Each structure stands twice: as structure tokens, then as C-alpha cells.
Amino acid sequence: MEYNARTQRVVLGFFLVITVASALRYFIGDIVFDLIFYLQISLALFILLSIFIRFIFVIDENYLTFQTLFFSIPFQKVLFPNQINQIKFKRIGWSTKCAIIQIKKGFNVRIVNFTPSNLFVDLIDFANEEGISISKTKDYLI
């Protein structure tokens, strides 16, 4: 099954407005060539580009696929059960559930804010079928 997520656009938009307003303060003044101005402009561009990032997570019969789409350019990571050490389930904040897939070689995959919400049930079923160890925190069980 396929699950989708997007970056938190409201938060990024808020940071973008603050960064641009702060950069305009330097631009309106006579300090156009200041290093801080260029850092703020590059930070604003980074925030603007990160608004267009999407994530797709697919649970198939024998493997997991994690895709990051920048505009429509895909960056894909396929995870087979023999590459996965453990899947940790925990909460981030008060109500947001999270799963961290720990991989033997490479970076861990963090699964949070995906829709539909039955992702964690399907991920637990996949782990049980493939014999992958699972750990759940006390907060997650509440």
C-alpha cells in the first residue's frame, strides 16, 4: 500500500516570511554587501525549495520503498528485510506517532506524518511476517 506525506508547509512559510523580512531590513539599510544578508537570502531559498518536497512510502510483500520527490525528481531507497535491524515505534510530541526503521548499513528511515493513518498497523504486520524485531515505547502504547 502507498502512503504520502508532505513537508510542514505552514511552519516553513512562517520561517520564510521571517527570513525574508529580516533580509529586507538589511537591504533597505545601506549594508547590502553584508555576509548576514547573503546568508539570509540563501536560507530563504533553501526554505522555499523545501516546501516542494514530498515523501512516498510503499509497503510491498517482500520489501519497503521510501521515495523522496523534489518537484517531480524521485530519490528512492528500497529496503529488504535482511537490511533492517529493527523497527522502533514511538511518539513525537503529545500525539504524533513515529516509526524509525534502523538499517544495518546507511541512514535510518524516519516515518512520521504519513496518510492514511493505518501505516503503523501495516508496518507492524510487515515486520511480523518478515521476522523483524519491533520495539515500542510506553508513550506509543498509550
Walk me through the structure.
Helix content is 37%, strand content 36%. With 142 residues, the chain is an alpha+beta fold. It folds into 2 domains: 5-50; 79-141, Roll (PH-domain like). Helix 1 runs antiparallel to helix 2. The relative contact order is 0.15. The model has no long low-confidence stretch (mean pLDDT 88). It comes from Pseudoneobacillus rhizosphaerae. The chain crosses the membrane at residues 12-29, 35-57. This is PH domain-containing protein.
Q: Give the CATH level 1 class of the largest domain.
A: Mainly Beta
Poorly predicted ranges (pLDDT <50, ≥5 residues)?
none
Mean pLDDT: 88
**How many individual domains?**
2
CATH superfamily of the largest domain: Pleckstrin-homology domain (PH domain)/Phosphotyrosine-binding domain (PTB)
What CATH architecture of the largest domain do you see?
Roll
- Please state the structural category: alpha+beta
Neighbour order of strands in the largest sheet: 1-2-3-4
User: What's the shape?
Assistant: elongated
Largest sheet: 4 strands, antiparallel
Ends distance = 26 Å
Gyration radius over CA: 20 Å
CATH topology tier name of the largest domain: PH-domain like
| Overall number of strands | 8
Assess the beta-strand content as a share of residues: 35-45%
How helical, in percent, are the residues?
25-40%
Order of helices and strands: EHHEEEEEEHEH
Question: Given the structure, what is the number of helices?
Answer: 4
